[in-house]
User: Fold this.
Amino acid sequence: MRNRLALFPVMAVLLLSPAVSTVAHHGFVSWFDMSRTVTLKGTVTSFEWTNPHSYIYLEVKNEKGAIEKWTAELGAPAMLARAGWRRDILKSGDEITAIGNPAKDGKPTVHLDKLLFANGQELSTAL
Amino acid sequence: MRYRLIFSAALVVATLAPYPAARGQQAAQPGPAPDISGVWLVEKFRPLLFPNGGAPFTPWAEAKFKATNPTTDDPNLACLPEGLPRFMISLPYPMEIFQVPTRVIIIHEGMQPVRQIYMNRQHLKDLDPSYAGDSIGKWEGDTLVVDTIGFNDKSWIDGALPHSEAMHLIERIRRIDHDTLVDDITIEDPVAYTQALNAHEVYKLKPGWEIREYVCAENNKYNYQAK
Assistant:
């Protein structure tokens, strides 16, 4: 059960948005539905620590047991570093829970707000 | 050897000393200028001036706005410079302000790395349209008043609004307390808007921060489609 992956779509109004997100950049208001959040529990397949965005690629098992490939978009390394992130903070195989705003077009992509590690550590993308 | 050292030192001092940006220009205003230097970050990120619509478009600007898809046509998607006033608003990246007698220089951790405000001259004649335009400034008490013209029409005002080459910005930048800087911007563009637009941005001082490298084209996955 510990390794079981699950996808938990959560529809919720974001009452509290971060003052300054490290993610906000390329027309993110147009791309992502900031009124909803999605919680993804999955396994990291790769992590790109790059400009203008960093990316976490993860595999998530949906309600039917099928594996879905998701992408979590983050901000630029400079801003993420100020929020406590590091280039080696994630590696392939890590189990994480990613919480973010889903893409408006229905693609399996989220604008990441927060990351939960298997050990309980929590990391926000907000400053 | 001694004279050579003295000569070299004098040369270095002469080279580094603040000087008018071009020959024949007046020196900067005398007297100490208020200190607005430091690294600043917007207090709250607001990507749109009119989040609920209602911008006072002219027919020209309304047609341009309606023909634009922000998910594919935002110049940011191509890593192009933000231009003004977007450089000062609608961006969640820090900027560092430097002051020398003849200029206020802003280094930005975004796609447009620098903005210069000339404190010692009037607008240049026959300006080539550009993303940043031509900014000139003067101090009125504790307020830096900046006048900018000379824009191209390739950038957006914020995350959605177009502008024309006729855009004219008047900014009033002041430090209202040690940790807070504000910029009140009046945006005049009679080609695009039937009345002036106003923007108010608040920045917070970020002690210990340094402007870091940002190379937008490194791994840009967005598909820019504007023509």
Summary: Residues 1-24 of chain B have pLDDT under 50 and may be disordered. The beta strands of chain B are 38-42, 95-100, 103-108, 114-118, 134-140, 143-149, 168-177, 180-188, 197-205.
